[in-house]
Amino acid sequence: MISSTPEKTASIASVQIGPVKVGAFVHQQQLLETIIDLNGRVFAGAAIAINPEKIMAARQDPQVAAMLSQAELRYADGIGVVLLMRKRLNQPVQRIPGCELWQSLMLRCADYQVPVYLVGARAEVLAQTKAGLLQQGVPVVGATDGYYEDEQQLLMDIRQSGAKVIPVAMGSPRQEQLIERLRQQLPDCFFMGVGGSFDVFTGQVKRAPALWCRLHLEWLYRLLSQPSRIGRQGRLLHYLWLALWGRL
Ligand code: UDP
Q1: Cα(195) to centroid of ligand 1, in Å?
Q2: Which end of the chain is more exposed for a tag (fewer CB within 10 A), N or C?
Q3: Prediction pTM value
Q4: Is residue 243 part of a domain?
Q5: Whose CA is nearest to atom 14 of ligand 1?
Q6: Does 239 reside within a domain?
Q7: PANTHER family under this entry (predicted)?
């Protein structure tokens, strides 16, 4: 299987928000076709979801900014980012929830028979995720849970599997750090950090009900159901303040 090169991103507009440049994808399909094109070629590199929380973290810590910039495909997952991009570009930009992107990408892997290797989550969640995906026709050629001890073994296992698409579900920044190390050794593969997506896929964690999502209130739902996230949400208010005053 041939991999495509990052030059493909050149045609996609981007917006600088704080220290982070975010790709303005008009709809999720555009991003999916960038990752696996109509000829089934896989984008060699990584994708990362950008939300206000990550932008604020990048403003405070140059290491976070550098880590975000290493992923070639930075897409907007967060209404606070999308609204600012629409205003600046004066063109449609769609919010792409990472979890939905991952599920759609898995179906695209099924359509094009692109081999997938899953990394992350607890062993039982991973086993259920793998079984569910196989049932959907996704060619899952290997999987390792997020509590492995030997990273070298993981690397060898991925290499031997022949996988081209590697979702990593270990939470931030752990997953991004692992992706950064793995991609040096596997330069033809596509990587994406998917946080708690395997937990959502298997029903261990509930996503906000559809209406909350449609109203872009998923962040509020998560705050109400996990009040411990309040510190993380505090940054969102600071972001809004800066955005309103044009300081981002
Ligand atoms: N996890 C993992 N290895 C670890 C720590 C966490 O695989 O060492 C997994 C955990 O089982 C869960 C996911 O990472 O599936 C954490 O997702 P979380 O919702 O915290 O990530 P976020 O989307 O908030 O970044």
Answers
A1: 5
A2: N
A3: 0.89
A4: no
A5: 170
A6: no
A7: PTHR34136, UDP-N-ACETYL-D-MANNOSAMINURONIC ACID TRANSFERASE
